[in-house]
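Trying the structure run again after the queue cleared.
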Amino acid sequence: MPMDNIGYYNGQIGPIEDIRVPMDDRGGIFGDGVYDATMAYDRIVVNMEEHIARFFESARLVRIPVPWSVEELSGLLTDLAGRVSARSKMVYWQATRGTGPRKHSFAGASAGPNLWITVRPLELTPLDGSYSAITRPDLRYALCHVKTINLLPNVLAAQEAAEHGCDEAILMKDGLVTEGTRHNIHILKDGALHTAPCDHRILPGIARQHLLAHARRLSIPVMEQPFDVSALMAADEVIMTSSASLCCAIRKVDGQAVGGRDSGTLKQLQQAVYHEYLADTGQIVPK
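Done. Tokens:
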């Protein structure tokens, strides 16, 4: 029977609100785990291979052994996505290191990680919207390229953004823009797409990679170089990307109007990523 949402924990399946998790799970005690997430449409999990590859790499980097094969995890995510009645949804999964009495070192934790999965209804962020952001210092550590569940600095910055009536907080370290709390951040300037390079300061976003690939296909120069807040404020367009926000324009930063000066290039990129999403999910692509 189709469900409104679904949760999974080590083989336990049911509505999210009914799933029970051990109090000694290291994810709840230390945030000791990694995750990934992407959109799904019906039973199609979008860019699943790329997201699973990043999930496995995050686990490797923090020494969490992953016992599931790509095929096993893919099959499970597809099955659970198909059980939720909403057509558009977010599929989230995480592996925590294990279960055991609270101890900082992980020797003695239960063998193998704990697998959590949730599927909830979610629509794509409208591409024709105008979004706002605040800037905040990037207080995170040097593992931002790992998709860890330890997200307290992101949570605090996102809450500040919400309290200011904004959609995102753009983070800065050493005077340079890194990323948002849950989006990669890009700018268009003089016809070129600028984005922070993939290093330990940012997450290697899947939507980011697709945006850059479309830009290159459209002969839009791509500059993977750091840029500062003055460049952000002077940009022709400011863009945020994620699995749910494919290519969305930020129109206000710290209360000041930004962007709106290269709508042609922006619309080219938005159309490219959206048409790809439609094609990948078996929907009709406008001609």
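The longest strand covers residues 33-41. Worth checking whether this holds up in the mutant runs.
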